[in-house]
Design a protein that fits this description.
Layout (H helix, E strand, L loop, with lengths): L7 H24 L6 H14 L3 E2 L11 E5 L2 E3 L14 E10 L2 E10 L5 H18 L8 H14 L3 E2 L5 E3 L6 E5 L15 E4 L2 E3 L5 E3 L6 E3 L5 E3 L2 E6 L2 E4 L5
C-alpha cells in the first residue's frame, strides 16, 4: 500500500476544493425541506461547484450520473438524485459531494433532517456525527489508522447501532479514492499516520443490522432490514498537532 503524502502547495489546493464542498453543504442545509426533490438538490450543487471554478467529482465517475449522492432513509450511500424522489417530513437524507479544484479533490458527506424527525433518527444522526469526530481525534502523526476505526466502532457500540462494513473511508488527493481504505470497525491495520496524509473519514451507521444490498440501479446501497442509515464524512489532513479538516469554509 502506497499512501501519498501531500505538500503544503497540494494541501492548499485541497483546502480550496474543500471550501467548495462546504459551500454546497451550507446551501443544502437551507434547501432541504419537505417537497424538495433530490434532483433539485443536485442541480443546486452543480451550480455552486461550477460557479467556484471547480468540477463535480462524482459526475461521470465510473458512470455515476449526478453531482451528489442523495441517499434517503434506508439508503446508505450512492443514491441517485431524481425528480421522482420528493422529500417529506420525517425523512433523513445523506448528501455526499465531491469537488475537484485544479486537479485536487474535496469530499464530504452530511446527513440532514427533513423537518421534524423521530427521536430514533435524531439519535442516529447524533451518534454517527459523534463517531466521525471520535475517529478524527486520532488523525495525528504517529497515531495508528486502527485507532481511527476503533474509535468509530466504540461509538457505534455505545449506541447499539449497526456498522456498514463493505464501505468506508479512503485516501483523497488527485483522485477521489486513494490508499488507505479506512474501515469503520477494528481490523489489524498497522499503518502509522504521518503528516501530509489526507484521508476521508466516513462512518456509516444503521438503526438496525450491519448488512446492506445494492439496488438494481447498480448504485444505491440500502440497509437489508429497511431501517434508516446515517453518513457523515470529512476530508482531513494529518498534522503533528492533530486533524486539520479540509472540507470546511475558508
Amino acid at each position: 500500500m502506497s499512501v501519498h503524502r501531500k505538500s503544503k502547495f497540494e494541501i492548499n489546493l485541497m483546502k480550496q476544493a474543500g471550501n467548495v464542498v462546504a459551500l454546497v453543504h451550507a446551501a443544502m442545509k437551507d434547501a432541504i425541506k419537505p417537497g424538495v426533490t433530490t434532483k433539485e438538490l443536485d442541480d443546486l450543487a452543480y451550480k455552486i461547484i461550477k460557479a467556484n471554478k471547480s468540477d463535480p467529482t462524482f459526475l461521470g465517475y465510473h458512470g455515476f450520473p449526478a453531482s451528489i449522492c442523495a441517499s434517503v432513509n434506508e439508503q446508505v450511500v450512492h443514491g441517485i438524485p431524481s425528480n421522482d424522489v420528493i422529500l417529506k417530513e420525517g425523512d433523513i437524507i445523506s448528501v455526499d459531494v465531491g469537488a475537484t479544484f485544479k486537479g485536487f479533490v474535496g469530499d464530504s458527506a452530511w446527513t440532514y433532517a427533513v423537518g421534524e424527525i423521530s427521536e430514533e433518527k435524531q439519535m442516529l444522526l447524533k451518534a454517527t456525527e459523534e463517531s466521525l469526530f471520535a475517529g478524527l481525534e486520532h488523525m495525528k502523526s504517529n497515531d495508528r489508522l486502527e485507532n481511527v476505526s476503533g474509535a468509530i466502532e466504540d461509538v457505534a457500540k455505545k449506541y447499539k447501532l449497526g456498522i456498514v462494513r463493505q464501505y468506508g473511508g479512503h485516501g483523497v488527493g488527485r483522485n477521489m479514492h486513494e490508499d488507505p481504505f479506512v474501515f469503520n470497525y477494528r481490523t489489524n491495520n498497522s499503518l502509522i499516520l504521518q503528516r501530509g496524509m489526507t484521508i476521508a473519514i466516513e462512518p456509516m451507521l444503521n438503526l438496525g443490522c450491519d448488512e446492506v444490498d445494492v439496488l438494481d440501479d447498480e448504485w444505491t446501497v440500502v440497509t437489508r432490514d429497511g431501517k434508516a442509515s446515517g453518513h457523515f464524512e470529512h476530508t482531513v489532513h494529518v498534522t503533528d498537532d492533530g486533524p486539520e479538516i479540509l472540507t470546511k469554509l475558508l
